[in-house]
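Q: I have 135 residues here and want to know how they pack in 3D. Can you give me a structure?
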Amino acid sequence: MCTVTHLVVGGAVGAWTGHGALAFALGVVSHAVLDAVPHYELDDFRLDLGITLVAVGGLVGWGYWLTPVFWGALGGVLPDVEILLWKLGLLRDTQMVFPSHSGLIRHGRRLSFRGALPQVLLIMGALGCLVVLRG
């Protein structure tokens, strides 16, 4: 799953919970759930990281800093730090600890670029939830 998808869905979960610690925990859970679904992943981790950093900037710019939305987004994206470390060669496969990265929970199969459409729709839905829940 593209990292920005984890971020936005985690943020929507955070908006729904309204509580920082619960938002963070459920953001982490949402990461595992999304990883289990067959999905498209960007091949270039720099592009994935760049898009995610822009999205984080958007969250901060729109006033979500240190709110449940922020904590849910952080929980949603944090497990992919080990994927970044792995892609940089700083972590071996055997050192992965997050269940959907280590193999404890089966990771969804990789889809072609057309598999990105469900993620785009998921991101749009999650952003819609953020707008509605923000009131």
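Q: Anything worth noting?
A: The chain has a mean pLDDT of 88. The chain has one domain: 3-134.
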